[in-house]
Design a protein that fits this description.
This protein is an alpha/beta fold and 361 residues long. The protein folds into 2 domains: 124 residues, NAD(P)-binding Rossmann-like Domain (Rossmann fold, 3-Layer(aba) Sandwich), CATH 3.40.50.720; 193 residues, Dihydrodipicolinate Reductase, domain 2. The strands form 2 sheets. Strands 14-13-12-11-7-10-9-8-15 form a 9-stranded mixed sheet. It has a 6-stranded parallel sheet with strand order 3-2-1-4-5-6, sandwiched between helices. Helix 4 runs parallel beside helix 5. The radius of gyration is 20 Å and the shape is globular. Bound molecules: nicotinamide-adenine-dinucleotide. Nicotinamide-adenine-dinucleotide (NAD) binds next to helix 1.
Length: 361
């Protein structure tokens, strides 16, 4: 039986979410008979967080120094869930020591991502990125629907994606920490930190971007931490589209997407941890509402063939996929190369806004 001892670096909001998913994976016996998975160690610089999470999950090893986990012979896989600034440092150290790595988004700078790729290839380990919407059944289903109905829908013409979220750095609400206000730790604001997920999904659904223009704005006196971004995207498939990303004070966290084809329109509104809603209309035919059950069942039957995976949420599914890639050797859907492309496009958006020009990719 394969041993899979997991270490977790940074156990705040996301670290805790991943710890819960790892424990669920063990308790549900998803890999029973194939691998013995253990949440073996936690590292966090904040001793209160470290002790409370280690006690909660009965984790035998705890430390304030994440690098101890990266070099430990007792650990096989590491989740890096620190604030963004520390992702590259821990991911590269762990990969160089042959550990499989799950690293949260955003990854860091473009050179740092390239260094991660080199470290992964040298260590021959798996590395999955926390672009979690790839494991959200609704987005997954939309991508499949657009491909399956290509003939009925006709050419894609236009896409509108809107994402608004309350300030995630006030230390209140669903984000209890404040580091997202600090450019030295977070690097950028709403587009990089939050809408990197949206860009990833726009690429998944609409294909590659050919050129873009952008307007990035700052309303909250936080250097380099933008709270508004509007992107104009020209896709290689001929469609154009916009992505609007906003951080503001209203107590809301919401996304909505509309896609217009020559013969059809499709709209979806993701749920928080649930599936949300999806409907589409082709020519004069009645509007079709896709049932949540249909989305969930199709996703489960396709994504996790042969595994006993209970219905849950995208964070759980991404952990199952990460474990599966290690245990069964399946490829990681969220590879570093795909994440690099998304980061490069986001960086191009900042340049387009700064220099007030259209950037060709
Ligand atoms: N995939 C998603 O949907 C999603 C959602 C939220 C956050 N994130 C990402 O996850 C990461 C963490 O965000 P969060 O909301 O959990 O932040 P958080 O502040 O809640 O948690 C971060 C934890 O890391 C610890 N930490 C800080 N520096 C450390 C270091 N050098 N070594 C070890 N521990 C350290 C902190 O003490 C804290 O407990 C960020 O990169 C964020 O962008 C992803």
């Amino acid at each position: 039986m394969q041993r899979l001892n997991v270490g977790l670096i940074g156990c705040g909001l996301m670290g805790n979410m991943h710890a819960m998913s790892i424990v669920n994976c063990i308790e549900e016996g998803v890999f029973a008979g194939k691998a013995e998975i253990k949440l073996h160690a936690i590292a966090d610089v904040d001793e209160k967080t470290l002790n409370s999470r280690s006690d909660l999950y009965e984790v035998p090893v705890r430390t304030t120094n994440g690098h101890e986990l990266c070099i430990s012979n007792d650990i096989d896989a590491i989740y890096v869930c620190t604030p963004t600034k520390f992702h590259a440092e821990f991911a590269i150290d762990a990969l160089r020591h042959g550990k499989h790595v799950f690293v949260e988004k955003p990854l860091g700078t473009i050179p740092q991502i390239r260094d991660m790729i080199v470290a992964r290839d040298a260590g021959k380990a798996k590395c999955q990125v926390g672009l979690v919407l790839r494991y959200d059944p609704l987005y997954w289903y939309v991508k499949k629907l657009v491909a399956d109905k290509a003939k009925d829908f006709g050419p894609m013409q236009n896409v509108i994606f809107r994402d608004d979220q309350d300030y995630p750095y006030t230390g209140t609400g669903s984000h209890p920490s404040t580091w997202r206000a600090d450019k030295d730790i977070a690097f950028h604001g709403t587009l990089f930190e939050h809408s990197i997920h949206d860009m990833d999904q726009l690429l998944a659904i609409c294909g590659d971007v050919e050129s873009l223009a952008a307007s990035v704005k700052f309303f909250n006196n936080k250097p380099d931490i933008e709270d508004s971004a509007t992107l104009l995207l020209n896709f290689k498939n001929g469609a154009s589209g916009s992505l609007t990303s906003v951080w503001y004070a209203a107590d809301r966290d919401s996304r909505r997407c509309e896609i217009y084809f020559k013969n059809a329109v499709l709209e979806f509104v993701p749920g928080a941890l649930g599936i949300g809603s999806l409907h589409y209309k082709v020519l004069t035919k009645p509007d079709v509402k896709v049932e949540q059950r249909e989305i969930q069942d199709t996703y489960m039957a396709t994504m996790f063939k042969g595994l006993r995976v209970p219905p849950s949420h995208a964070y759980f599914y991404e952990t199952v996929a990460f474990m599966q890639s290690i245990i069964d050797g399946t490829p990681t859907y969220n590879a570093l190369e795909a994440a690099l492309k998304v980061h490069e496009i986001i960086e191009a958006c900042y340049m387009a806004s700064r220099e007030k020009k259209v950037v060709k990719l």
